[in-house]
Amino acid sequence: MEEDAVADLRDCLRAEQDCAVIGSATAQVLARLGFPEPGDGRAVLVPLLEACGAAARACRDACRRHAEVYEHCALVAEACERCDEACADLLNRRS
Known about the structure:
Elements: H1 6-33, H2 42-64, H3 71-92
Helix pairs in contact: 1-2, 1-3, 2-3
């Protein structure tokens, strides 16, 4: 929030906040449930993983627009890419 170009980073900051909140909620449910067998909590977990992946992709894309100028944006974009991949891996296990 102390960058000179906060206005230019506004979309990036919002995407980061959304990703953090959705990711935290998803992590809490995963920690409580693990990845359940069909019928045991998947009705909640699958949509959370889908939302978490979508938030991670949106954050990654927003941060990539600034990654050449701000190192922290590049780092966040990389972390979001890993998060999206982890969500996709868990979703692929659902069948």
